[in-house]
Design brief:
The protein has 252 residues and is of the alpha/beta class. It has a single domain, classed as L-arginine/glycine Amidinotransferase, Chain A (5-stranded Propeller). It is 22% helix and 24% strand. The protein is built from six helices and 15 strands. Strands 2-1-15 form a three-stranded mixed β-sheet, covered by helices on one side. A hairpin with a 4-residue loop joins strand 3 and strand 4.
Length: 252
């Protein structure tokens, strides 16, 4: 069970964020409203939410998940793969120090926590344009100190591992595309997302409820049929920056 979340308010400079989506620039006022709705959804799941101020120096910093991985045993400050995002970890580190957890750091290689999926005491690390083998190896070394294990999955077509995978607990794995038949994932009950709703593969389990991006009814209904209560959240403006529901918070 999760009890807390940390989010970071979008900055107005988000219009200059990194993107490959080809959906145009985000509308800042709408993004701010959607972010407030996202916070409300987190609270509906029983979380106490810490809201950090925006930082105009880092257009992508609202995607706070990439800069830190919080496990039950420690917090790991990452080394983001995009050079323009590496400075995001400086201010965030000061917040993380207040949580009362041991703080570790990825110092060699690169790693975005959007590439990390937790399944009980095991962590899957996606090898991507943002996370390399050196970063994943250092993560594995850190996790071993806290009695966790990890393994890697090389990505073919998606930005981050959790772009295409979401663990919904109870052995249920929401997935699409290259992950539907991946040998490391054959032990899971795969909930296959239709190709035309691939964006919804990034949904978020929180305390028995699942946040689902608005506008993907087939995926929403499939998750409902699997026994979960769903909460739809409109994140259209964050999608324009290649971001999804999980990217917008640290949950622990």
């Amino acid at each position: 069970m999760f009890t807390r979340a940390i989010v970071k308010t979008p900055c107005r400079n988000m219009v200059n964020g990194i993107t490959t989506a080809g959906l145009g620039k985000p509308e800042v006022e709408l993004a701010l409203k959607q972010h407030q709705d996202y916070i409300l959804a987190l609270k509906q799941c029983g979380l106490t939410v810490m809201v950090l101020d925006p930082d105009e120096n880092f257009p992508d910093s609202t995607f706070i998940e990439d800069a830190c991985l919080i496990t039950p045993g420690c917090a790991i400050i990452t080394n983001p793969g995009a050079p323009s995002r590496r400075g995001e970890t400086i201010n965030l580190s000061e917040t993380i120090k207040t949580l009362g957890l041991p703080v570790e750091r990825i110092r060699n290689g690169t790693l975005d926590a959007g590439d990390i999926m937790m399944v009980n005491d095991h962590y899957f690390a996606g090898l991507s344009e943002r996370t390399n083998q050196e970063g994943a190896s250092q993560l594995n070394h850190i996790l071993k100190k806290y009695d966790y294990t990890s393994s890697t999955i090389a990505l073919q077509h998606v930005l981050h591992l959790k772009t295409g995978l979401s663990y919904l607990e109870n052995n249920n794995l929401l997935a699409f595309g290259e992950f539907l038949t991946h040998p490391l994932l054959t032990g899971f009950n795969i909930l296959a997302v239709d190709p035309d709703e691939s964006y919804a593969a990034n949904s978020v389990w929180i305390n028995g409820k699942v946040l689902v991006p608005m506008g993907f009814p087939k995926t929403r209904d499939m998750i409902k049929d699997a026994g979960y209560q769903t909460i739809e959240v409109d994140v259209s403006e964050f999608r324009k920056l290649d971001g999804g529901l999980s990217c917008l918070s640290l949950r622990f």
